[in-house]
């Protein structure tokens, strides 16, 4: 999975997510969730896999009862097989989306994904490096958030965690970071109009096409099978 082209991998997973989103197909959701769970379990440690499963289960339980109550209210307060199928279909989507997204995150680095978008989809360099900069700055925000809280506490000021007195310094710092980064890139001669070279080239090979065709074919096959059952 790590050797697959990041753009093809992302496009395939996105297409599967759209296919799942526009239908209430429990069989499709279950097959994809189990398949990607097996793949994710190979790349994630057991602790992270269990933590991911717990969060997905909590989210799925909430969606299940929400869908069940919503469907029951529209059916004049009656709970039947259709309402259970509707709720199970919504809940199974959570596992499907969670495991597919986790597999992409576990097998693809942000740098490789950005470079692949530049080479395969011709993403402009100014957007590519902006995304990369934002990704690398994100881990700094929690550290600055804690520093801001400690700084206010040292002055005898206590606020809740979403106070404007805490959020405002963070916004100012992020703006300052972006200005410094833009200045640094300009001073080093960065230009979005110039032709750039890459230390690593990403190409689309036959395993990428096999991965894309196999998963999309499986998704379409289960969609057609589900549609045939609906009309019986």
TrEMBL record:
Subcellular location: Membrane
Annotated keywords: Membrane, Transmembrane, Transmembrane helix
Parts of the chain that traverse the membrane: 12-43, 49-71, 92-115, 121-141, 209-227
Keyword Transmembrane helix among record annotations: yes
Presence of the UniProt keyword Transmembrane in the record: yes
Domain of life: Bacteria
Membrane topology: Multi-pass membrane protein
A Pfam family hit: CbiQ
Protein's name in the database: Energy-coupling factor transporter transmembrane component T
Species in which this protein is naturally found: Loigolactobacillus binensis
